[in-house]
């Protein structure tokens, strides 16, 4: 996967950087692969990056990616909604947060 950051805008109020990247790949990469690549390009930790959108047109190898890179995990959890966090991180998935119920009485 070849990736290049085209826009990196700081949002001081939300304590994050809003990143737009473009690139190319043979197949659509996973959110984990994109997070790792953006972390390497921006010198941040992959645990604080949330991939919002990965766009490509059918049959095309070009990608357009929108991601948010937070300064810390606490502000990421406070600002991003649970659905986006669940798509990006295994620990926030819906089934993982609910406790298992015991047998019915």
UniProtKB/TrEMBL annotation:
<dbReference type="GO" id="GO:0006412">
    <property type="term" value="P:translation"/>
</dbReference>
<dbReference type="InterPro" id="IPR012677">
    <property type="entry name" value="Nucleotide-bd_a/b_plait_sf"/>
</dbReference>
<keyword id="KW-0687">Ribonucleoprotein</keyword>
<dbReference type="Pfam" id="PF01282">
    <property type="entry name" value="Ribosomal_S24e"/>
</dbReference>
<dbReference type="InterPro" id="IPR001976">
    <property type="entry name" value="Ribosomal_eS24"/>
</dbReference>
<keyword id="KW-0689">Ribosomal protein</keyword>
<dbReference type="GO" id="GO:0003735">
    <property type="term" value="F:structural constituent of ribosome"/>
</dbReference>
<dbReference type="GO" id="GO:0005840">
    <property type="term" value="C:ribosome"/>
</dbReference>
<dbReference type="GO" id="GO:1990904">
    <property type="term" value="C:ribonucleoprotein complex"/>
</dbReference>
<dbReference type="InterPro" id="IPR012678">
    <property type="entry name" value="Ribosomal_uL23/eL15/eS24_sf"/>
</dbReference>
<protein>
    <recommendedName>
        <fullName>30S ribosomal protein S24e</fullName>
    </recommendedName>
</protein>
């Amino acid at each position: 996967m070849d990736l290049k950051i085209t826009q990196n805008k700081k949002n001081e109020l939300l304590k994050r950087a809003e990143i737009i990247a473009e690139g190319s790949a043979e197949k659509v990469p996973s959110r984990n692969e994109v997070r790792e690549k953006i972390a390497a390009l921006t010198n941040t930790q992959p645990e604080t990056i949330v991939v919002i959108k990965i766009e490509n047109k059918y049959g095309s190898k070009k990608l357009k990616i929108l991601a948010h890179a937070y300064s810390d995990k606490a502000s990421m959890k406070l600002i991003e909604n649970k659905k986006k966090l669940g798509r990006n991180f295994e620990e926030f998935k819906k089934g993982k947060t609910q406790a298992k119920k015991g047998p019915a009485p």
